[in-house]
Amino acid sequence: MVARLKPRAKAMTSAPARVRRLELFGRPPLLEGEDEDIYNELRDRMYAAVDPADIIEEMFVEDMLYLQWDIVRLRRLKLSLLTESGSEALKSFLSANMNLELYEDIFRENLTQILEKKLPKDQAQELAEQGCRSNEADPKIKQLLSGSGHDLDDIQDAATRERAQELAQAYARREPEAIDQVNEILASAGRTMDNIYASQLTEEIDKIERIERLITVAETRRNVSLRELDRHRAVLAEALRQKIPEIESTEYRVIEPTRTEGRARRDQ
């Protein structure tokens, strides 16, 4: 006689199953902005793939789930760091290399607002226009700015930084006009985006290496959990193999029907 084993229950994806897991293992370890629906989908798919047979295997699945989510988070952090550092490097490069025509409108507007505190609006606009176009108005502008806490060079630098930030953000959004402008500035300076990112990467290399080490640690722990799950299943399988011969060799006693039962059968 061969023992018939009950088939494993299908991976639990129903609402009651999620409530049960929540009670056993706590809420998902999510940071602000992370999507709980995506986490639950990953959990359901891992349960479906592993199909845990008991609570021990469920614990291994939860460990692997947590570590895998941590790996994804760290990879996202690394990408964000590279993207942000590259954006800062691009903004710094653009501020130092863009032509006046790209930030002239901001420069003129900011200078006009400051001059309006001492001049009528039309005169302030005219003088600011002259100051943007040539250096002839500099002495008069500097005289008006003296004692006001403002400097012409500082106003111009602020305008270049503001436009550089706008242009870098538009470039990151892959807006065609911004891409053309950035590529033109890069070409005029004999640089490429690879040069820009590489120059900034050297300053962030220590942070990147630390993130890489954390990813490696999480991957190692995840793989250990996976191996422990396999070992746990191997132990259960071996125990089952040892039980099967005992079940097959079990003797059964045949119970003869009683006289009353035999007579009743003949009468039928």
Give an overview of the whole structure.
- This protein is an all-alpha fold and 268 residues long.
- The chain has 2 domains: 15-79 and 204-251, no CATH class; 97-203, no CATH class.
- The chain is 77% helix and 0% strand.
- The two termini are 32 Å apart.
- The model is unreliable at 1-12 (pLDDT under 50).
Backbone shape: elongated
Averaging pLDDT over every residue, what do you get? Answer: 83
Reading the helices and strands in chain order gives HHHHHHHHHH
According to DSSP, the number of beta strands is 0
Give the total of domains: 2
Mind telling me the C-alpha Rg?
37 Å
Largest β-sheet summary: none
β-strand amount: under 5%
Helix share of residues?
A: over 70%
Low-confidence stretches: 1-12
Helix and strand composition category: mainly alpha
Give me the number of helical elements.
10
Distance N terminus to C terminus? 32 Å
Please give a quick description of this structure.
The chain has ten helices and no strands. By secondary structure, it is mostly helical.
Topology at a glance:
Elements: H1 15-25, H2 36-50, H3 55-97, H4 100-115, H5 121-133, H6 138-145, H7 152-172, H8 176-189, H9 193-248, H10 259-267
Spell out the key features of this protein.
single chain; mainly alpha; disordered N terminus; 268 residues; 2 domains
